[in-house]
């Protein structure tokens, strides 16, 4: 069986041998050879000798003593080497005698010289131009071969380098995995230890609080009562710290689980705000709630986590705001995910604010952005915001903070929920309120605007006034109103009934905890607490209009 030869060359030497085999049958020559050139020597790589051995494979000639050194940029033809000024004195000419020499360069793609394709023939022979062109074509073919071989060598080296890099990377990855595993175990142990210790400490603190409360019910001197107040304040601070550490340890240990139950987002926020409002009453700070009318009544999510996130941000706003207002707003955010309802919850205060360089550190564990001064004692654990951020991340949400020293802080939190369709949304639309006209009197612009947007969404026509004087101008303009919604600050500043006249009934907006005496109850149609709870105000307006229509 005849062995089938490969159709491809394995390397440059095979290609060189093939070229010489082809040329010796096509061109009359005493010797055909291919030499490499490294700038120092010319090595005969492949050679053919017709009769006498003129060149020998493997022979290395000094570069300056070889014909190949003459071949640099292009082909060269020397009819008589014994007569040509560049070759007559060379040792090789003295050795092999007078010949015709043709040399064609073999180049890399970059132009760098690799070697030469050479022919030696009796000096009586004259080579045609076609012979030279054929040799050039063969040299070009060899140039392609050496370039291909160079690229293959480069690729092999690159692959070997990549293989080594891969092994090193895999080794480093394994080391990092081992370190991560050790770190995870340490974090797990630390979190479990913290949880256990915090739980025990909290039990002791609760016992101390209980006993302190019992002690306060006994007869105490004024000095003893001051001591008890300090003791209770310290107990409460320790309890907050213990609870925060316990929450943080649960988050770090990965034991915090998200619930997915139906809940009323607006009512959740309203309930929380009403627990915070009493802390602002002695600071002349008003908390305002602004809820967009398109917020769904029921969402699927973890109401406790939402409450905890808002509590941390709102508590900070109350702590660092000494005058002005705190605005809590809820609105929907447009998103491409049709299965999710994205709610933006914003807490914006007019407090002390923080510098830009501290914003990036705001969510670090135990970080305190404000130092206690001689006027204000801020206190705190430095864990609340870190816990809030971890919870937001756990829920797949985002946080954005904007703040300026002396002007306040604004925190936007975006959270995604599924809309719960098991119950219908509260309608907040009634023909009873359609066409009703209300005059709002409130000296707080933000509160006034928020309340105005809410009433407009229910189909109520309205006008706004920031003072009793502005309200009088509205009433004297000729427009008639069904009701005046008035902030208690306006009522306290003047005898509003006498000032405005008694034609339009008045409903009072007042802070939570406000009570009306018998005389006030006669003067006002109803009382609505601030921050305004939309369902409470809606029901109060429906009841008022219904009574008014029935009385007619």
Given this structure, which CATH class of the largest domain is correct? Alpha Beta
N-C termini distance: 120 Å
Total count of helical runs of at least 4 residues: 14
Beta-strand content: 15-25%
CATH superfamily of the largest domain: Histidine kinase-like ATPase, C-terminal domain
Kindly provide the radius of gyration, computed on alpha-carbon positions and rounded to a whole number of angstroms. Answer: 47 Å
Classify the secondary structure makeup into a structural class: alpha/beta
The geometry reads as: elongated
Unreliable stretches, pLDDT < 50, 5 or more residues?
1-7
Q: Summarize the amount of helix as a percent range.
A: 40-55%
CATH architecture of the largest domain: 2-Layer Sandwich
What's the main sheet like? Answer: 7 strands, mixed
Number of domains: 4
CATH topology of the largest domain: Heat Shock Protein 90
Q: Based on DSSP secondary structure assignment, what is the total number of beta strands?
A: 18
The overall average pLDDT, rounded, is: 84
């Amino acid at each position: 069986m005849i062995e089938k030869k490969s159709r491809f060359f394995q390397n440059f030497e095979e290609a060189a041998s093939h070229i010489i085999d082809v040329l010796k049958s096509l061109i009359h020559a005493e010797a055909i050879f291919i030499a490499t050139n490294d700038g120092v020597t010319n090595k005969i790589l492949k050679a053919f000798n017709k009769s006498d051995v003129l060149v020998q494979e493997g022979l290395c000639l000094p570069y300056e003593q070889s014909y190949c050194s003459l071949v640099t940029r292009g082909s060269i033809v020397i009819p008589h080497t014994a007569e040509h000024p560049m070759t007559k004195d060379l040792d090789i000419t003295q050795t092999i005698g007078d010949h015709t020499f043709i040399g064609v360069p073999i180049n890399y793609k970059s132009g760098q010289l690799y070697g030469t394709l050479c022919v030696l023939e009796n000096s009586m022979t004259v080579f045609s131009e076609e012979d030279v062109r054929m040799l050039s074509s063969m040299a070009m073919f060899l140039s392609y071969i050496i370039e291909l071989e160079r690229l293959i060598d480069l690729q092999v080296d690159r692959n070997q380098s990549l293989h080594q890099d891969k092994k090193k990377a895999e080794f480093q990855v394994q080391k990092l995995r081992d370190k991560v595993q050790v770190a995870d175990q340490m974090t797990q142990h630390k979190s479990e230890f913290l949880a256990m210790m915090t739980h025990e400490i909290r039990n002791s603190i609760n016992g101390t609080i209980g006993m302190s409360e019992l002690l306060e019910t006994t007869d105490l001197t004024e000095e003893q009562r001051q001591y008890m107040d300090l003791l209770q304040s310290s107990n409460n601070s320790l309890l907050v710290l213990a609870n925060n550490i316990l929450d943080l340890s649960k988050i770090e240990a990965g034991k915090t689980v998200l619930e997915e139950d139906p809940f009323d987002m607006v009512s959740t926020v309203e309930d929380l705000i009403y627990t915070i409002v009493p802390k602002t009453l002695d600071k002349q700070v008003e908390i305002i709630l602004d809820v967009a009318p398109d917020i769904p009544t029921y969402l699927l999510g973890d109401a406790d986590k939402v409450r905890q996130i808002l509590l941390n941000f709102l508590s900070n706003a109350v702590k660092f705001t000494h005058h002005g207002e705190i605005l809590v707003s809820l609105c929907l955010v447009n998103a491409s995910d049709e299965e999710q309802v994205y709610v933006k919850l914003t807490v914006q205060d007019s407090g002390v604010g923080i510098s830009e360089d501290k914003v990036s550190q705001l969510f670090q564990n135990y970080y305190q952005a404000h130092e206690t001064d001689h006027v204000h004692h801020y206190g705190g654990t430095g864990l609340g915001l870190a816990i809030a951020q971890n919870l937001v991340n756990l829920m797949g949400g985002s946080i954005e903070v904007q703040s300026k020293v002396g002007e306040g802080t604004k925190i936007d939190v975006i959270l995604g929920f599924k809309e719960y369709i098991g119950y219908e949304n509260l309608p907040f639309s009634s023909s009873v309120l359609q066409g009703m006209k209300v005059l709002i009197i409130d000296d707080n612009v933000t509160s006034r605007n928020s309340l105005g947007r809410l009433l407009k969404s229910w189909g109520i026509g309205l006008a706004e006034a920031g003072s009793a004087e502005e309200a009088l101008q509205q009433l004297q303009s000729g427009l008639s109103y069904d009701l005046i919604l008035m902030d208690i600050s306006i009522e306290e500043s003047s005898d509003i009934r006498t000032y405005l006249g008694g034609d339009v009934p008045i409903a009072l907006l007042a802070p939570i905890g406000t009570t009306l005496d018998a005389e006030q109850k006669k003067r006002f149609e109803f009382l609505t607490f601030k921050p305004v709870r939309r369902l409470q105000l809606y029901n109060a307006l429906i009841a008022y209009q219904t009574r008014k229509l029935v009385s007619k």
